[in-house]
Structures
1.
Amino acid sequence: MNFSHTDRSWVEIAPAALRHNAAVARARIGPEVELLAVIKANGYGHGLAAVAEALREEAQLFGVANVREAIETRAVVRQPVIILGPALPDERAAIVEHGFIPSVSSFAEADAFSRIAVARGSSVALCAVIDTGMGRMGFAETEAAEGVGRVAGLEKVRLHSVSTHLPAADEDAAYTAVQLRRFQTLMGRLREEVRGDYLVHALCSAGVGRFADSAADIVRVGLMLYGSSFDPALQSELRPAMTWKTRIALLREVPAGSSISYGRTFIAGQTMRVATIGVGYADGLPRALSNRDAVVLIGGQRCPVLGRVTMDLTMVDVTSVPAAAVGDETVLLGRQGGEEILAAEVAAQAGTIAWEIFTGIGSRVARVYV
């Protein structure tokens, strides 16, 4: 490993696990469907360039959030790069220049890209998004056929794909099934009215888990690639790609009645051995884990977090780990011995989602590829 022994906190990321998880997705969708690897937000905290490099043989497309991420991706891979969110006006020229695929929600956006392409003597491929229930972006469902048709007729524009987004694939299977049927019906009409070789995509990771038979031409796989799923059965097939570690910085014995951390929200009921570990909310360990029965792994045992998580340090009960010593590795996410902490567990304790746990890990946490 290429990390310094002075690092207070680091994540160990396994590219082989990323490839394994891509293979799990591939097994579900079959060989004909294209896999779009979602690597926005610094590869969900795993390192954008490293994730792209790891998946260059597995993914047919890559998905990012903005031009800067797209340029970083293009430096590593040659596959098409789709910018999944709406582009700012100042980003459009660079998108056309570099040949990225922007997502558009209106004729006005598409027309702006067309004008830039005409002025440059080039062309642009677009992804037309249809809003079937997400409410975040896209042509209104009732106006989509007409809108997408107008986009396809623009000068110097090629319609690369038509997509929609599933807002509740991991929470509401009944709604999602109806949403997918509506989208499929709409796409049947669109295929008749708007000719072309454009592709269709709707499924995210949760969709691949539950609705793989609706895969269409492309699936957008994000969380699943990193080894996390809401579905225990799918989770058992995946390999978490990240292990997040820190070290014990200090060990102290505190008597009964001692208060731990800000606000004195934890009072020791008996003499305890307390480890101070070198990580806090500035590193991405959620402050919301305070007093929520959160644990870390030390010596292969689950050790409770005590009191409030602070900016740089967190206190942990190691009374049951008498061999614990200053400098010992402490696992925040991942496996140690026979125990494992998944991102979904941490997210549930913090009242959030696994996506936020991964993407919230800060820049001072070293990334190490193993």
Note: The first strand starts at residue 9 and ends at 13.
2.
Amino acid sequence: MIAVLQHQPETGLGRLEGHLGDLAVDYEVVQTGETLPDPAAFDGAVVLGGSLSADDAALRPARRWIRGAVLSGLPYLGVCLGGQLLASALGARVGPGGAEAGIHSVFLTDAARHDVVFAGLPRRFDVFGWHGDRFDLPRGAVPLAGSLACAYQAFRYGGTAYGLQFHPEVRPHDLAGWRDLPGYRRLLDESGRDWTDVELELARAANALDDLAAHLLERWLGLVAGAPSVREGRPALASASDRATA
């Protein structure tokens, strides 16, 4: 069972929902504004994006939950704000660094070539970005990707915790739902981009982004399947190949 931490209803799983369904992976969506369940009840955690800042007081319980979960060995995949929360929970600085909105290229580090999740991706590929804040690396973290405008686009902490600055999950109709969020409208104004232009970029990149989301999620779920169960005596999540042959 995967815990999906969601901060705002407008920022959901997006295309990751379909991939989880295709892989028959059970998950539970948990709202971070509510009482958070024991991390030991889950095999892994996916933490979504949102228009809040990582240091927002409303996210203090989520930061504590994330720190305890990751330090206990729970596999973690954080998207944009989820990646920033991972960095913040592990003691790294997260703060303003210039708005980045729309499709742009990221470049993998040498370490990414040997990383279980990122191996097999091109050294340069396009992602969808939508952020005004950015993270420094926690001590001991491994940088995996960066862009011309943002030094750290992805990192790994330990063997199974990943923070992404970009959004592999966002589809055009997901983006349309962000128009009503003041923080997202303000971010786009700061970036100097136009909604229509960004929507068209995202639509044109849909197939490539779908492939990217599937690659990252499936590789990360492979780590989840192989990780020691956080809850004593509980078998780890079955791998996709195990489910296919069961």
Note: The radius of gyration is 17 Å.
3.
Amino acid sequence: MSLPSPTPIRMVAIEDDQAFLSFLVEAIAPHADLCLVASASTVAQGLALLSGPPADVLLVDLGLPDGSGIDLIAKAVQAWPTCEVLVSTTFRDQLSVIQCFEAGASGYLLKQAHAGRLVEDIRMLHEGGSPISPLIARQVLHRLRPAPNEDAQPSGPAPLDDLQPAAPGTQVVLSAREQEVLEFITKGFTSEEIAGLMGLSRNTVLTYVRRTYRKLNVSSKTEAIYEARLGGLLR
């Protein structure tokens, strides 16, 4: 007498990258314990799926055509409380990572980094684990680790014309490089990470940070983000 086959893990994917969706279908095809029951390519389509039978695993991308997958995660946690949410994306900034976990995701994978072991990661998630790409795990650890030097005003020599704050009431104008560094700071990247992303030395990045602080007339990262948003320098 043969034993009944185990119930397959029912998956729903919210993914607008058709190449990755095809890869997912091909990856799980040989495995009887995995079943993709539905897919969608937009937030609106994903929300419609949430009114149907719950899945065991919801695979979500973040950069969808009509909005952020983060909003979908929060809705899914409410509609399907027994479903585990796995983020699969190219977004690696700290803000996206933290917002996903706060919304209710249990795993966070970078697409290219974990494509080869996606099946194992889905099983791990269903069994109660939390698959996280090593780079993302480092982001989370950095968030939890005290970093007093990151919020303080960078030290070091700077040309005199860089040390003059903007006069009160005047519009602050940042160079393209300063703007780029500011965007990275807002997303939670460290000076070392920004240097790697921009192909610059850490000292050069700190110079751009210092110039930006002076133009905004601030002395910390938190103040810089606040003033930049207030002045319309950040989206």
Note: The first strand starts at residue 9 and ends at 14.
